[in-house]
Amino acid sequence: MLLLASCAVEQALVAPPADTGTRPSARDSARPEPVQPEPQPEPEPEPEPEVVVGLLVTELMIDPTAVDDANGEWIELLSTSTADLVLDGLTLRDDGLDDVAVASFVIRPGERLVVCADGDDRANGGVACAGTWTWGSLGDGLALANTGDELEVVLGGVVLDRVVWDDRFSVPGAALGRDDDGQWCAGDAVFGGGDRGTPGSVNPDCP
Ligand SMILES: [Ca+2]
Ligand SMILES: [Ca+2]
Ligand SMILES: [Ca+2]
Q1: What is the pTM for the complete model shown?
Q2: Can you spell out the DSSP letters for 144-164?
Q3: Cβ contact 74:44 at 8 Å
Q4: Do the beta carbons of residue 129 and residue 112 sit within 8 Å?
Q5: Which residues have CB under 8 Å from 70's CB, separation 6+?
Q6: By Cβ atoms counted within 10 A, which residue in 15, 135, 177, 198 is the most buried?
């Protein structure tokens, strides 16, 4: 009896511990850990395309004959900008006393608009004007002298174009137009009150 009891005690001592069910099985440890997605960097915003600002003087009515110079002078401007341009603070000047502001207007890329000494097309020889300047030849405005002058187009302190001419340049009754090659010549096409030129439209090629 004593021996049997001893064996029972021994068996009890070597009995395997109860399975708690918490140990990982071999299958569990082979299962790959779920892959966490790498945090993606924020995409760089597309840089805004830089706006190129450009404005060219493409036609000048210096010496109109259908009406007086004070009413009939005009300047055609072509936008070479890459975006709409708000011409707020546009000034026209020469190397002497002339320096005038033109009231704000918008010009689209590739558009030609005309600024005039007189905005009334019944008085200016029949020209549609996007803006006007105060005409004056004695420092009280701006005039395009028939005998030679300069014209600078200035926006925000930057000279966007400059034209200089002498007494051989202007033609009575005809605007001087600049073609795509940069050549200047007198207009042929009659407009409005009988003078020649193409205010607000493309200039023909010079001969
Ligand atoms: Ca003139
Ligand atoms: Ca002048
Ligand atoms: Ca023109």
Answers
A1: 0.79
A2: --TTEEEEEEEETTEEEEEEE
A3: no
A4: no
A5: 117, 118, 135, 143
A6: 177
What is the phi/psi pair of residue 188, to 5°? -105, -40
Q: Provide, for the chain, the percentages of residues in helix, strand and coil under a 3-state DSSP scheme, each rounded to the nearest 5.
A: 10, 30, 60
- CB-based contact 96:143 (threshold 8 Å): no
Whole-number Å distance, alpha carbon 109 to ligand 1 midpoint, is 29
Residue showing tokens 């082979």: 30
Quick one: average pLDDT of 72-78? 98
Closest to 155 in 3D by CA, of 48, 56, 59: 56
Residue 179 CA to ligand 3 centre (angstroms)? 9
Q: Does residue 163 surpass a pLDDT of 90?
A: yes
Q: Which two tokens stand for residue 59?
A: 């036609």
Contact, 161 vs 153, CB < 8 A? yes
Quote the ligand 2 centre to 194 CA distance (angstroms).
24
Mean pLDDT of the chain: 88
